[in-house]
Amino acid sequence: MGLLQNKTAVITGGAQGIGLAIAETFVAEGAKVVLADLNGAAAKDAAAGLGGPDVALGIACDVVNAADVERALDAAVSTFGSLDVVVNNAGITRDATMRTMTEEQFDQVINVHLKGCWNGTRLAAARMREQKSGAIVNISSLSGKVGMVGQTNYSAAKAGIVGLTKAAAKEMAHHGVRVNAIQPGLIRSAMTEAMPQKAWDQKMAEIPVGRPGEPSEVASVALFYASSLSSYMTGTVAEVTGGRFM
C-alpha cells in the first residue's frame, strides 16, 4: 500500500518541472492524479506518460480563471471518485528590475501565483470541508523568504502564498483540512540551467550542501504534506533549499 493509495490529487502546472515530478511521486505512491496546466496538450502528454487514463488525466487550466480551476476539481471527482489533495504549483516568471518592470509584468506574476493559489486553495477547501478531510500544498519559493533582485513581482507573490497558507490553515483546521507550503530553493530544471554561468555560480556559492536540488526532492516533501505522515501539521512552511539562506 502506497502512502496515497485510493487518493486523488489535482496538481496545477503539472505538465513539467516540479509539478510533473510531484505527479510522478504521487502515482508511485498509489494516487490518481489530474494534471491541470495552461498547456492542455502538454498535460495530456504528461498524463499518458504517467500511465494513461487509469491513473492520470491531463486538462487545460488557467489558474487565474476560477471556472477553469473548478473544472479541474470536478474532473478529479468525476473521473477518479474523490478529491483528497490539491497542489497549487502553477507559476510564471517575468523578471526585471523595478526600474524596467512593467505594470503588466507585475500583474501577470501576482495573478498566476497569488490569485491562482487562492483560487486553488479556496475552491478545494470548499469541497474538502464537506468531507472533513483533505490536504492542500502550496508551492512558494525561497524568493518569498528573502527577496531576490529583479523579482519584486515574484518575491511578493511567493511571500503572499505563505501568508495565504497560514490564514487558510487557521480557517480550515477544525474542518479536518490541512494547508501547508513548500519553499524550494535552486532546483535543477531547464529554466535554471539556462542561467548565465556567473549567476549560477553565485547561487551555488550560497548553498551549504554544495549542489542544486532535484525536482524529486521537492516532490518527496509534497508527498509528506499530502500524506498521513504529516497528520498533525498545518500552516507550516518547509524550506527545500540545501540550507541556502537558512
UniProtKB/TrEMBL annotation:
InterPro entries: KR_dom, NAD(P)-bd_dom_sf, Sc_DH/Rdtase_CS, SDR_fam
Keywords: Oxidoreductase
Gene Ontology molecular function, alphabetical: oxidoreductase activity, acting on the CH-OH group of donors, NAD or NADP as acceptor
All copies of domain Ketoreductase, residue ranges: 7-190
Record-linked SUPFAM superfamilies: NAD(P)-binding Rossmann-fold domains (SSF51735)
Record-stated family: Belongs to the short-chain dehydrogenases/reductases (SDR) family.
Descriptive protein name: 3-oxoacyl-ACP synthase
